[in-house]
Amino acid sequence: MLFPVKYVDTNLSFLNDVLRQFIQKSVVLTRYTKATLFPAEFIPIHDHARNAIDKKFRNVFLEIKKLDHAEKKRLLRTYINHQRVKKLCEKKTLPKLELSSFPNALQIRLKELGEYLYTSGLKNAAIRKLANGGADEGIDSLLLHSQRYRKENGTVCCFCGINDYEEQLADTVDAKQWRPAYDHYLPKEKYPFAAVNFNNLFPVCYQCNSKSKGAEDPCYCKIDAGRKLSFYPFNVESKGGLFFSYSVNETAVLSNEFWHVELNDDADENQLTWNRVFKITNRVKSRLNIKYKKWLQSELGGNNLTTAELKNQLQNAAVDNMAKKRTTRDGYHKSLTFMNLANMRDELLESIVGALNDEAVPESRDAALEELTELGFEFN
């Protein structure tokens, strides 16, 4: 990841507390006793006919009941293990207990429960109010939590630095608002016990969540079948980095293979995991080779600068973009690009500037003025 983020608290973690009590009690009970399995204030929600909470929890309990004493103790250890998200990421000495070692029927029911609690439980109005101590004022939601998260950590995805988090609809009530994209860092398909653990939930851009990571497990790599170290996003020391290099051949300027992107430390297992899970070097390389001329064109702004003037401007732009890396998409990548351009030999930079004429250019100012006038705007 490019930069660490700060944990933002939410009372929605109440639902994870409900799940914890249920698991801890299920391994010792022989009957589905609601008064023991759940907090008393949760039982009316559990019993409500319009949700499937009762069914989801009962299905899991019935499968746990089939386990022998040793298996139940192992299931509880697995639950505790999967709640230790930070340690699983940062300590390979902590064994990763596999849910796959339990009967298939139990695995299925636990995954169904985890999925239900995340997709339906966290947006259930009664659960959200209960999490707020029963008060109407201050009820939280994933939308409100994501807004606080962005205010604290910026609007750019910390995993790639390429994209903003998803925008939301204006003038739309919460019930019809788009659900913010959160990544289960330890995927809920393999860690359903952590499905509503906010130490495992991170706002993320669509490409990182759905296109790159999916259900990839940062703690385990199937290719070499081994436990892996991984950055934990809420650790302030979690910070990867990239190294940009370029071809010294001027003919490469006209191709889409001018830039190369590597991890800045390919011996660091945390960075290797980041790249494996989010495909970061390939994604940044592709974007860089497509976009860098347009970024440079924007910095030139139509001005006829000397090479020395351009290099000085690029250095200033690099500092500005690095300062905005959390709030401006591509800020980190533009910063490294501009510094590389500013430090390359004059002849190569001049050939790149010369090639800008081959880039698609904006419409003329006269055409833009005419279009804005047609839209009803007036100019002095």
What can you tell me about this protein's structure?
With 380 residues, this protein is mainly alpha-helical. The protein folds into two domains: 207 residues, no CATH class; 117 residues, no CATH class. It is built from 16 helices and six strands. The strands form three sheets. The protein has a two-stranded antiparallel ribbon. It has a two-stranded antiparallel sheet with strand order 3-4. A two-stranded antiparallel ribbon has the order 5-6. Helix 4 packs antiparallel against helix 7 and helix 12 crosses helix 14. The longest helix has 21 residues. It starts with 13 loop residues before the first helix and ends in a 6-residue tail after the last helix.
Give the ordered list of helices and strands. HHHHHHHHHEEHEEEEHHHHHH
Number of separate helices: 16
Structural class: mainly alpha
Query: Roughly what fraction of the amino acids lie in strands?
Result: 5-15%
Oligomer: single chain
DSSP summary, beta strand count: 6
How does the major sheet shape up? Answer: 2 strands, antiparallel
Determine the fraction of residues in helical runs and give it as a percent range.
Answer: 40-55%
Q: Which regions have little confidence, pLDDT < 50, spanning 5+ residues?
A: none
The radius of gyration over CA amounts to: 26 Å
* Number of structural units classed as domains: 2
Give the overall pLDDT as a whole number.
Answer: 92
Taking the alpha carbons of the first and last residues, their distance comes to 48 Å
Q: Spatial order of the strands in the main sheet?
A: 1-2
Please tell me what the overall shape is. Answer: elongated
